């Protein structure tokens, strides 16, 4: 099953008569509420998806900033979005598919034919394709989600990952090295993690790079793609994008949803700083 769809191919699908459900997942750390932008302009018939309320759930700080939603709640949201069994579902955003990948990751193993719009809103507009304004409340759907793990790793799995395979930190280098703390109580990385920033896999036009380029990028970091790969980021959003990039390249990976926001709040966990996976262990 393909994981991406190009704007022109999506335009053809919309004209084909097959049920297509469009999910506008606009979200970013500096602008977490994407509804105003959605109302201003969105793809035809797209419904707004609130990432923090529908693709995550409220939790305790020690669980990380964006714990995964319960299956029943996710199914209820998917029905609110108008999804029926057998529909083609397209997720997109305006931030290089970082947020859209979270929807893709949560739904892909659960019986939903979901793809990410390659190039997102920017790519759609660049092709001169139509937009619409206003909010949309579709007729509720009846989709049934399978009770299948989307590919999660626990905090203990993340700790063991450098021994059993590879642990990949997808954050920016300054976060990995411990230069920037951000929203978390301590800066640095999980010992043994290799830093491959998510932006590595994004082309200048916002599309994902080719499978060959993605594989070559990981191999340049001496990552054996035949071994198990576990991904983490700041709070479990950006790492889903790297999971999408790897899936596009034919490689499956697990995501540690709590990511650094959970690890950094667990005082029993060691923290490394510096450029290398081992780095310098930092005491609390």
From TrEMBL:
Residues 16-133, 166-272 form the Rhodanese domain. PROSITE patterns: RHODANESE_3. GO terms for molecular function: transferase activity. It holds the Pfam family Rhodanese. The keyword Phosphoprotein does not apply. Keywords: Repeat, Transferase. Its EC number is 2.8.1.-. This is Sulfurtransferase.
């Amino acid at each position: 099953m393909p994981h991406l769809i190009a704007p022109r191919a999506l335009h053809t699908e919309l004209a084909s008569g097959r049920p297509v459900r469009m999910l506008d997942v606009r979200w970013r750390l500096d602008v977490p509420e994407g509804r105003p932008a959605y109302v201003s302009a969105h793809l035809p018939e797209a419904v707004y998806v609130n990432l923090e309320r529908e693709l995550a759930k409220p939790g305790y700080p020690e669980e990380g900033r964006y714990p995964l939603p319960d299956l029943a709640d996710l199914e209820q949201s998917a029905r609110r979005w108008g999804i029926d069994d057998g529909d083609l579902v397209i997720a997109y955003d305006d931030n290089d598919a970082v947020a859209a990948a979270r929807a893709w990751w949560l739904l892909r193993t659960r019986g939903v034919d979901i793809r990410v719009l390659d190039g997102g809103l920017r790519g759609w507009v660049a092709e001169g394709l139509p937009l619409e304004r206003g909010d949309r409340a579709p007729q509720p759907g009846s989709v049934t989600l399978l009770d299948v793990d989307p590919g999660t790793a626990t905090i203990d799995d993340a700790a063991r990952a450098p021994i059993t395979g590879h642990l990949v930190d997808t954050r920016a280098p300054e976060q990995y090295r411990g230069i920037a703390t951000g929203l978390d109580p301590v800066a640095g990385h999980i010992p043994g993690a290799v830093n491959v920033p998510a932006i590595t896999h994004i082309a200048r036009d916002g599309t994902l790079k080719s499978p060959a380029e993605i594989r070559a990028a990981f191999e340049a970091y001496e990552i054996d793609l035949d071994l198990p790969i576990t991904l983490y980021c700041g709070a479990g959003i950006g790492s889903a994008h790297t999971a999408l990039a790897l899936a596009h390249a034919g490689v499956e990976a697990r995501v540690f949803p709590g990511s650094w926001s959970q690890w950094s709040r667990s005082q029993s966990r060691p923290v490394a700083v510096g450029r290398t996976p081992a780095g310098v262990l930092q005491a609390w």
